[in-house]
């Protein structure tokens, strides 16, 4: 579809072609976003959001040794796998 002027008519086929082009472009953009790598290390604030913990609860879990961390400068980082393992290790199986 070329440049349009005010005195040009647009056919339904032209609109359908434009719609298809837009859908293809949108799918490509959305597919590209899903291919982003998952973040490996999370700051404390991000870990709290993932876990649903308050700052104090996160510190208690860290101090108890249930959750490993790395400290660089004044920042504490948590490995995503360790955050997920915390839930796996804490699963409770109920028996009838």
From TrEMBL:
<protein>
    <submittedName>
        <fullName>Helix-turn-helix domain-containing protein</fullName>
    </submittedName>
</protein>
<dbReference type="InterPro" id="IPR041657">
    <property type="entry name" value="HTH_17"/>
</dbReference>
<feature type="domain" description="Helix-turn-helix">
    <location>
        <begin position="45"/>
        <end position="89"/>
    </location>
</feature>
<dbReference type="Pfam" id="PF12728">
    <property type="entry name" value="HTH_17"/>
</dbReference>
């Amino acid at each position: 579809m070329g440049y349009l002027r005010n005195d040009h008519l647009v056919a339904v086929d032209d609109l359908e072609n434009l719609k298809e082009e837009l859908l293809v472009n949108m799918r490509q953009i959305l597919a590209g976003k899903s291919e982003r790598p998952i973040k490996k290390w999370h700051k404390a604030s991000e870990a709290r959001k993932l876990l649903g913990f308050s700052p104090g609860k996160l510190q208690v879990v860290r101090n108890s040794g249930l959750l490993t961390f790395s400290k660089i400068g004044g920042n504490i980082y948590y490995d995503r796998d360790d955050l997920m393992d915390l839930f796996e290790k804490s699963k409770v199986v109920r028996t009838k």
